[in-house]
Amino acid sequence: MQIRSIILYSKSGEKRALDFRLGELNIVTGTSQTGKSALLDIVDFCLGRDEATLPISPIFNTVAWYAVILQLPDTHILAARPAPRPGAKFVTNAMLEVGNDLGIPELPDLRVNTDSTQLRQQLGGRIGIGDTRSEPAPGSLLSPLSANLGHAVLLCLQNQDEVASKRALFHRQNERSIPESLKATIPYFLGAVPEDQAALQQQLTQAKRALRRAENDLKAAQEANQSIEARLESLLGEARVHGLLPDSSVDTSDRTAVIEALKQAASFRPTPDNADEEQRRQEILLTEQASALRRQLRSLAEERQLLNDLETEAAGYTGAVARGMSRLSALNLVPDGFPGEHSCPLCGSELDESDPTVADMHATLADLRGQLDSVQTVQPRREQALREIEQTAMRLREQLRGIEGALSIIAEQRSQQAGLLGQVEAQAYTRGRISAYLGQINTASDSGHLQRLESDVAVAQRLVQGLEEQLDTETIDDKLTNGLSYLSGKMTGHARTLKLEHGDRLVRLDLKKLTVVADTLEGITELLRIGSGKNHVGYHVAAHLALHQYFVANSRPVPRFLMLDQPTQPYYPSDMAKQRGRLEDIALDEDRVTVTRLFELMHQVVRELSPNFQVIVSDHADLPHEWYQDSVRYNWRNGEKLIPTTWLEEQPTP
After folding, report:
1. Which residues in 171-199 are b (16+ Cβ under 10 Å) and which e?
2. HEC string of 230-242?
3. What DSSP letter does each residue of 570-586 carry, written as one string?
4. Per-residue pLDDT reduced to its tens digit, 152-169
5. Whole-angstrom Cα distance, residue 358 to residue 340?
């Protein structure tokens, strides 16, 4: 697959078609900002890249569609993509058309009829990319990878930031996941991995997983069967310790008897304890009785306090009555002839107011004596009541102490029962362990099951062995080594032609690190440690020319073109020199020779592989050699550009 044309369509319907010669070196030279570098991005975009990397500028905003016409041995293919809308970062719409007499369509004829994924699959199938899904390395988080045209294109493009890079050898190598894709697909494009390797590799992966599962199952069953007697005896002793089995002896040499005993232990269920329920009822009854006794004691205490208060009041009343009687007892000294209530009892003189009569005082005295007798009569009964209250209180206190003692005993019993509850939990735990283990040994002890597992392992081993023989990893490694050796020979020859640093020794491609390495006196040196951008460009060109020489020689499914953008950028020291691109603008004579050698090498390789290889170079250089000028397809100077400036004037008003 080579590039016949690159076409741009303006929004007003104008076309800008660039035609390229098949099987030749095509050079697009010109000054800066003429659109040379955009050619590589346009091809990358039209061949299915979703990310929009096309320039954003007023002139490029006039483009409505981008397209390429590809030449295949038996047909032409138009791959077209609508221009990204303003602000869009990704585009998936595409148009694909195939035909032997395919011409350049008009803008109204362009239509979306597929997407970028289908476009790449269709184009990849056309150049021979088959089922190449590869499984990632064990332990990798990557998904299985299917090679497609997008991976092949990575080997066909080198933009100006890549062709002089010392850290990246391939297109987009610095992007996420691209290095892993390159490592996985380059062996296929070199022919080391057969096309049916994907299906076989997937089958082998699944077969190895099945083998590991069968081996793990067999190992677990064997280990369980070997240690079963010791485990059964241990569980039997544990069941006895926790009271799950009677003390009757079991013949531990008889596996069947031990299993039956353990089944009995696993089915053990503790009987409900009726004494515990009776104890709870008794505790409740005693608690109620204790509460009743305490209430009675409080009532007796209140009655005793009342009687004591009455005793105190009676004592005070008796004292007062006794003092009154003591004063009235003087009546016994009054004679019978006392003059009366109007005369003074001492002198007999007449009183202004009459005194109580002696008879009245005798009457009061008699009344006091009667009250005193009444109080003294009640006191013995009160004292008797106090004695009875005290006796009753002593009896109730004795009863309360007895009840409290009984409750204390019940509390002690409950504390003991808490330990029994722990034993019940231990029994339940042991029963669970016994049940789980018995479920395992029912299978592990089955000799027929072991034989079936051994048979499964043997079948899985034979399947893995057969698939490994079909894959033949040694043959794959030999083919890859042979391909890399071919590349090393070509790269070394190109490095010597370009007189690159360390090019006089062996140069080769390191697929693990995706870089160029050279043998030196100090050891192996990577491109990263080889100085100057001039050497970096030289090794990039040498490596990619060698790859395409291999692809053509071995009919590998890779597009037959290589696009290089600005390979001479390290040689032109100033903007003025870049504008003119002449050899005399290069300061050093040796650099002029190197630039000439660089294009001569491209020209030579293309001629050797003609008509099966095409190189398209966008560069400032405009060398005077006849063969170079014959290779120039477009020279964009003096106002000539990729997109005509008239498109800005013809752009339709929104």
Report:
1. bbbeeeebbebbbbbbbbbbbbbbeebbe
2. HHHHHHHHHHHHC
3. GG--SHHHHHH--GGGS
4. 999 999 999 999 999 999
5. 8
Q: Hey, what are 583's tokens?
A: 């050899």
Residue 146's closest CA among 161, 124, 131? 131
Ramachandran assignment for 35, one of left (phi > 0), alpha (psi -120 to 50 degrees), beta (any other)? left
- pLDDT > 80? residue 440: no
Identity of the highest mean pLDDT range in 85-99, 249-263, 470-484: 85-99
Six-digit token string for 606? 């293309």
- Is the torsion defined by CA of 46, 50, 56, 61 positive or negative? positive
Q: Is residue 48 exposed (0-12), middle (13-18) or buried (19+ Cβ within 10 Å)? A: buried
Instruction: Report the C-alpha gap between 438 and 100 in whole angstroms.
Output: 76
Asked whether 58 and 643 are in contact (CB, 8 A), the reply is no
Residues 190 and 185: their CA atoms lie apart, in Å, by: 9
Q: Which two tokens stand for residue 54?
A: 């096309």
CA separation for the pair 623, 176 (Å, rounded) = 38
Angle between helices 473-497 and 589-609 (to 10 degrees): 140
Contact 285, 343 (CB under 8 A): no
In 506-560, DSSP assigns E strands to: 507-510, 515-520, 523-526
| E strand or H helix at 385 | helix 358-444
Q: Which residues contact 8 (CB under 8 A, 6 or more apart)?
A: 15, 16, 42, 63, 65, 66, 67, 642, 643
Find out whether the peptide bond into 611 is cis, omega within 30 degrees of 0.
yes
Pair type for strands 76-82 and 93-99: antiparallel
Plot region of 34 (φ>0 → left; ψ -120 to 50 → alpha; else → beta): alpha
Give the Cα separation of 545 and 567 in Å (integer): 13
Closest CA to 562 of 606, 499, 623: 606
Instruction: Determine the Cα–Cα distance for residues 165 and 539; give it in Å rounded to an integer.
Output: 10
CB 266 within 8 A of CB 435: yes
Q: What is the mean pLDDT of residues 543-551?
A: 98
Dihedral angle of Cα 548, 552, 557, 561, to the nearest 10 degrees: 50
87-113 average pLDDT score: 94
DSSP secondary structure letter of residue 61: G
